[in-house]
Design goal:
68 residues; mainly alpha; Arc Repressor Mutant, subunit A; 54% helix; 12% strand
């Protein structure tokens, strides 16, 4: 996987998280056709890059706040 592909996955995860429609990590992995472990790694990297993203148990989705 090259840098462009990784960034594409991260962008898709953030966009879905802003819409609160990622679903659980396993479902998101299935939708993106990657492993659940990759989803969790990408979420960790997204956090390290400064985006506030977390998993909400109530709505069963990742949630992200827009950067100001």
């Amino acid at each position: 996987m090259n840098k462009l592909q990784k960034q594409s996955y991260k962008d898709r995860i953030v966009n879905l998280a802003r819409l609160k429609s990622t679903g659980p990590p396993a479902d998101l992995a299935f939708r993106l056709e990657i492993s659940e472990r990759s989803v969790k790694r990408f979420v960790r990297e997204i956090r390290e890059e400064g985006t506030d993203i977390w998993y909400c148990q109530t709505i069963m989705s990742y949630v992200a706040e827009k950067k100001i």
